[in-house]
Amino acid sequence: MFAFWFNIPLWQRVIAALILGVILGLWWGPDAEQIKWIGSFFIASIKMLVVPLIFFSLVSGVAAIGDIRKLGKVGGRAMILFIITGQIAVWLGLAIGTLLKPGAGIDPDKIPSKGDIPPPTDLAWTERIIALVPQSPVEVMANVDVLPLIVFALLIGIGILMAKEEGEPVAKIFDSGAIVMQKVTMIVMELTPFGVFALMAWVAGTLGTDALIALAKLVGLNYLGCLLIIIVMYSCIIKFVAKIPPIDFFRGITDAIAVSYSTASSNATLPVTLRCAQRNLGVSKSVSSFVISLGATINMNGTAMYLGLATLFGAQVFGVDLTWADYFTISILATLAAIGAAGIPGAGIIMMALVFPQVGVPLETIALVAGVDRIMDMMRTTTNVSGDAAVAVTVASMTGELDKEELISADDV
Ligand code: ASP
User: Fold this and answer.
1) Ligand 1, atom nearest to 385 Cα
2) Going by CA atoms, what residue is nearest to atom 2 of ligand 1?
């Protein structure tokens, strides 16, 4: 029985749960609220991961910059490309969300519990700055106060870099902590089919077809944003900066695209991405192993785009007005979240807890979108992984580490 269950790939179990949940919800109506607790259990388990996952991943991500410096021009160029593409991605998500309004169709009165709408906006800017500093790191962890936690994690990462060799043992603890937290997340992700089933039944039963249409729109826009990033942004970088034909690039990474889409994990795809970059694209071993392994943890353009889009979705559903200052806050937080997100399934949804409260979007949004997150996660991961390969090829081409003969032989892969 157990073997049968675990033999079905997780994403197939999740999609089946999603469809069954919608059917049950439409049939059962508002009473489907009775099983929402299963979804709440799933979301509580995700929230449990927020603090330790962000803390360990962010510190180990910042500490990894030590290797970047060792790699000089390769590291610098990779970092610049990661940041520029990440920023374009978030703003694309914000633009799509603002123009096409995925969350506009839901009647807010139908939402049974509005969650805790955090009121951050009435603080003066001086108070906001003071609130960035954790008076007690333990207290901010206990309160899941993510912004000061990030400041603390960034400072520890910088401290590790400054301590050089003497900081290495601490860096190792954080690296290993990050890996352990990824494993814990994998355990929690096994709850996904049950959580998705209950949440979709609840959404379909209590909010009706309007909500389903809004979610379908969100999923569609997530795919649109990801495809624009891959087809337009990566193609331009490949064509104009790396100066190779985009079609050869995409042919070369077909395996990585397939594996990332089905596993929803940049980390699990890492060996395949490396092989594609080295064998099919002709990126040297040193550049590919450095850029792609680092990229799998910190370069997540699909996730960054999605966080922008999902924040607007939540704001539209719950009628929260966002100002330009909020947009800038989202762009910075989504970039940090993409660095702090581990390359594992569901990392993006955990990072919502980082972005939403800072701009006054209720965390209840997570319950709304969690049911369809997996389908979006698959596409975000493909975007993330293709971005790692695109940056690796571009940096290799800029630094003379690209063997174009290998690239041409991509035909016979
Ligand atoms: N699953 C994604 C990845 O591994 C991260 C995310 O959830 O957005 O790249």
Assistant:
1) 9
2) 381
Give the separation between CA 149 and CA 163, rounded to whole angstroms: 21
Q: What are phi and psi of 304, to 5 degrees?
A: -65, -45
For tokens 């940041």, the residue is 83
User: What's the CA gap between 199 and 197, in Å, rounded?
Assistant: 6
Atom of ligand 1 lying closest to residue 264 CA:
1
Quote the strand ranges of 338-413, DSSP E: none
User: Between 10-28 and 192-202, two packed helices, what is the crossing angle to 10 degrees?
Assistant: 20
Atom number, ligand 1, closest to the C-alpha of residue 267? 4
Cβ atoms < 10 Å from Cβ of 363: 18
Phi, psi of 244 (to 5 degrees): -130, 155
Q: In whole angstroms, what is the distance from residue 373 CA to residue 210 CA?
A: 18
DSSP letter assigned to residue 300:
-
pLDDT by position in tens, the chain (length 413): 778 888 888 888 988 999 999 999 999 989 998 999 999 898 888 888 888 988 888 788 778 777 666 667 788 898 899 999 999 999 999 999 999 999 887 776 666 555 555 555 556 678 778 878 888 999 989 987 777 888 898 899 889 989 989 999 999 999 999 889 888 988 988 998 999 899 889 989 988 888 899 999 999 999 999 999 999 999 999 999 999 999 999 999 999 999 999 889 998 898 899 999 999 999 988 888 888 888 887 899 999 999 999 999 999 998 899 999 999 999 999 988 887 788 888 889 988 988 998 899 998 899 889 889 999 999 999 999 999 999 999 999 998 888 877 765 545 54
The Å distance, Cα 376 to ligand 1 centre, comes to 10
Residue linked to tokens 């096409």 = 100
The Cα–Cα gap between 67 and 49 comes to 27
- CB neighbours of 89 closer than 8 A, spacing ≥ 6? 225, 229, 233, 301, 302, 304, 305, 308
> CA of 381: how far to CAs of 12, 251, 354, 398, 404, in Å?
16, 18, 19, 26, 27
Residues 6+ apart with CB under 8 A from 53: 178, 181, 182, 185, 340, 342, 347, 350
Q: Which amino acid is at 289?
A: S
Cβ atoms of residues 290 and 399 within 8 Å: no
DSSP state of 243: -
